[in-house]
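Troubleshooting entry. The earlier prediction with hexanoyl-coenzyme A gave an output that would not parse, so I re-checked the input for stray whitespace and re-submitted. Clean input:
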Amino acid sequence: MKDILNELERRRATARLGGGQARIDAQHSRGKLTARERVDLLMDQGSFEEFDMYVEHRSTDFGMEKTKIPGDGVVTGWGTINGRVVYVFAKDFTVFGGSLSEAHAKKITKIQDMALQNRAPIIGLFDAGGARIQEGVAALGGYGDVFLRNVMASGVIPQISVIMGPCAGGDVYSPAMTDFIFMVRDTSYMFVTGPDVVKTVTNETVTAEDLGGAKVHTTKTSIADRAYENDVEALLQMRRLMDFLPEHNRSGVPVLPTRDNPERLEMSLDTLIPDNPNKPYDIKELISKVVDEADFFEIQEAFAKNIVTGFARMDGKTVGIVANQPMVLAGVLDSDASRKAARFVRFCDCFEIPIITLVDVPGFLPGTAQEYGGLIKHGAKLLFAYAEATVPKLTLITRKAYGGAYDVMSSKHIRGDVNYAWPTAEIAVMGAKGAAEIIYRSELSDPEKIAGRIEEYKQRFANPFVAAERGYIDEVITPHATRRRLCRALNMLANKKAENPWKKHDNIPL
Ligand code: HXC
């Protein structure tokens, strides 16, 4: 028996060594952890159970039969994060650059199938060069199997991708179909083809960082939702994120005990809005003063900063927050902000996470750059996403809600459940100056007269009561009572049931 146990231990030790000590050392020297070290940090201590550690590839082309490594470049299994079951696969760059063979794909699809069948989130840690070149179509087929499962699981269980090394081909397309992508600064890259192929095909010289580094993907393309300094920070933040997410689309949001009283009043909010309507203020101050323990997990913080999206908790339960940010471009809605918020709203709706929308928006951004960039369609994405969402939707207008943006930002007309406004709210087709200058164009030459018209428009519309008189605003609330009112409204909506008409699926303007 002892011999048998020794043999088991020997086999396990060989598998754990992956591509060998030299490659592990090389991985460390680049500032990266190994696949197993990452999984250990991600999961609750001692909770990870590995599957398929002895699986080897079956390729015989290009002398591959001489280079078989147990595990074949991916560590798969399940464990818990803060006590809840999570499935995980981690690409092992020390084995054929983490590339995907037919056998490697089968390991991943096994875990994907288990996660979907057993309704628990799945996290992929990516550090890999795509389809294994030596295997040709067998590897491509393997990726097809992974992609299909990404799509089948979409909207049923949360799928998270963390990019922790150079990733190409299928190792970027599979993440692209998951809910969130996170990157590590300076050590992770995402591109369909790497700099060498780019040089060959287009003769363009570009570094990996400039082609697909964390900065590019968090600020330019918005493909990545956030970036972290190193592997450890990224993995610890994933543990934090998982605490906000439901296990699946029917489980309801997790409830975490909180010491933050839902009745808490926040007197400083009464002076958050500056007297001058053109002066900005930081909407994140409102968020942190209203949510449980000021704990806010921001999504896409570096992209389209004129809108803020992220997760928080109210009275222990997860909510999604969407908020115009007056500090950036006066909080205007442009194509990027609309796309960013639309995707976030849809994630929340998939997973039954109530949405709180904080509105201070001067409208849509005018101009050729926006129009040529498809503002109509991108803005429609956000309008569509809010309108189709059936989760509890709370809206608070703090200041401006002008024009089409008023309708878009979770207004009553597109099924906002509870729509509040602060007394400082201004709800109108546009600002008073612009409005008066259009409807009294003939009086433009007389500055005194036009000033009077502006004042008249202001008096009529620069308040929440015209909307409240029509029931478009349910109540005008005092800023200091915001947390209490929102917590109470969320409790009131806890059993909300709303359904859209039967359809195969809708046709959101992609
Ligand atoms: C087999 C691979 C590999 C691959 C890397 N390796 N990618 N082996 N198949 N796809 C091996 C290398 O040969 C090397 O082995 C080791 O992994 C480390 O790779 P390096 O190139 O030395 O590392 P680095 O310089 O950091 O570059 C990493 C990389 C680069 C950017 C990922 O390796 C690269 O560009 N690889 C090819 C990417 C690619 O085009 N893949 C196919 C995509 S098609 P040794 O033994 O020398 O250390 C695809 C189809 C899916 O995925 C469908 C999409 C829709």
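This one parsed fine. Residues 183 and 451 are 52 Å apart (CA to CA).
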